[in-house]
Design goal:
Blueprint: H1 2-24, H2 39-74, E1 78-83, E2 88-91, H3 93-98, H4 110-114, H5 121-128, E3 138-142, E4 149-157, E5 163-170, H6 172-209
Antiparallel strand pairs: 1-2, 1-5, 3-4, 4-5
Length: about 210
Amino acid sequence: VGYVLARRVSRPIRSLSAAAARIAGGDFDAVVRDRPADETGELIASFNQMAGAIKQQRQDLERRRDYIEKILLNATIGVISMDRDGRLVTVNPAAGIILDRPGLSPGTTSAALFARNTTLAPLAAALSNPSAQSSPDINLTLPGPHMERSVRARVVPFLEGQGIILLLEDVTETVRSNRLAAWAEMARRIAHEIKNPLTPIQLSAEHIHR
């Protein structure tokens, strides 16, 4: 009788321990089927509820991760994250294109990224001394196959000094459009300044002709 009672008491505990070990190993479908009508049953019910909540949170995190990964893969803005040691953790395709480093991948050190590239010196200086707040915009002029490219960068720190995020945006077309607009405005003003003295000259010529 004592053996049977001990087995009856210990079996739910062993099941609970085994389910906890499965969850610790990454199996979030683990539940305890034994439900004795005592305090152990209440403990098992709480455990199953906790396991379900953990599974739901895990699924939510995976959905958010997939969502963020899809955004980064298709974003036109380059995004690079680095750990506190200056090693790249994540790199999206746009970052490699903007920096003309298509093979840029996680694990690369910041020293290797900026080695023998003097055009990235302002960015390297900002990364070597990150502040607690986002840095001001850093304007870079990078060489290209046909023309120079204008790139705007910003350094955003993680919380508690866990690393930094580097944002890169190719603003070549924007800068070109602004320059064209400035030239157009200057041409308009020059034409206006030329036209002003032409009017009295024309009137005087007509008067002389008459």
